[in-house]
Design a protein that fits this description.
Helix content is about 55%, strand content about 0%. It is built from five helices and no strands. The protein has helices spanning about 15-25, 30-40, 45-70, 85-120, 160-165. The radius of gyration is 26 Å and the shape is elongated.
């Protein structure tokens, strides 16, 4: 048996490896977006090109990545010593992972910001008169006459929540 370096972790079992692969492939964004994407792009007909591309590109590339990682026990930069032609592929992989990490962190920051903004007793998007409101801001719910005798032209106005978002 070959003894691996102590600083490099190994899988404790097959189920551990399988669950890690599933977690790597299926993110929370995919679970949220997939039904919407399928609906907007033709419903069930969208599944035909999806599974076709999954079989032609997705699974073979994923298998290649797993195989190279298992075989070499190296990271994305060092594994491409196998072929000097693909040396830039490891750097591109790290660059893409870094950009995706920044993207996801910004989404989580927006979610947390608006979550805590919505937990206040006076919502910031409830009334006009804030620094971000323009002269077109009008609180629509309090602007109508009680008996409806004076119809207002609301087409050129904007609600405070629209201006906030």
């Amino acid at each position: 048996d070959v003894d691996f370096a102590a600083d490099r972790g190994n899988w404790t079992g097959k189920l551990d490896f399988l669950l890690s692969c599933i977690g790597y492939c299926v993110g929370l964004g995919n679970v949220w977006r997939f039904p919407y994407r399928a609906y907007t792009n033709g419903g069930g007909a969208f599944l035909v090109p999806y599974f076709l591309m999954l079989a032609i590109c997705g699974i073979p590339l994923f298998f290649l990545e797993l195989s190279l990682g298992q075989f070499s026990s190296l990271g994305p930069l060092a594994v491409w010593k196998i072929s000097p032609l693909f040396k830039g592929a490891g750097a591109a992989m790290l660059l893409i992972v870094g950009l995706v990490a920044i993207y996801y962190n910004m989404i989580i920051a927006y979610v947390l910001f608006y979550l805590f903004a919505s937990l206040t007793s006076n919502l910031p998007w409830e009334h006009c008169g804030n620094w971000w409101n323009t002269d077109l801001c009008l609180e629509h719910r309090g602007s109508k006459d009680g008996n409806g005798a004076l119809p207002l032209n609301l087409t050129s106005t904007v609600s405070p929540s629209e201006e906030y978002w």
